[in-house]
Amino acid sequence: MTDSDKLDVILTEIIDMKTDIRGMKTDIQGVKTEMQGMKSDILGVKAEMQGMKSDMQGVKTEIRGMKSDIQGVKAEMQGMKSDIQNIQSDIKSLNTRMDSLEFQIKSTERVLRNQITKSETLILGEVERVHLILDQHIHNQTMHTALA
Fold it and tell me: pLDDT at position 146, please?
């Protein structure tokens, strides 16, 4: 092989290498373009993540508020529980007093019935005595002072 042939082979290889390098440059440009797209996507993801972080902070704040509200409700419920226990105690006390009053009323009714019965017996006895006197007066006219 002559020098000229060798140079032709080298030239051909250099041309092939240049073509390969141009292809590589095109590929690299494509990769760069893709990288720019990926960077843009990553920036979009970062922006979305920042938005999500902000949303999460808002949710955390709302949860803290809800916890505070729940604590308030719990405190109110404890107060209501105490009020209900007091009401139950008052009801028991009222029931006891009502039972006592009912017993007193029944006892008073019994005493009054007995007193009324005694009074009726006394009145009937007195009426019977007056009848006896009147009967005696009817049979013995001299007993009447108004007729004599």
Answer: 54
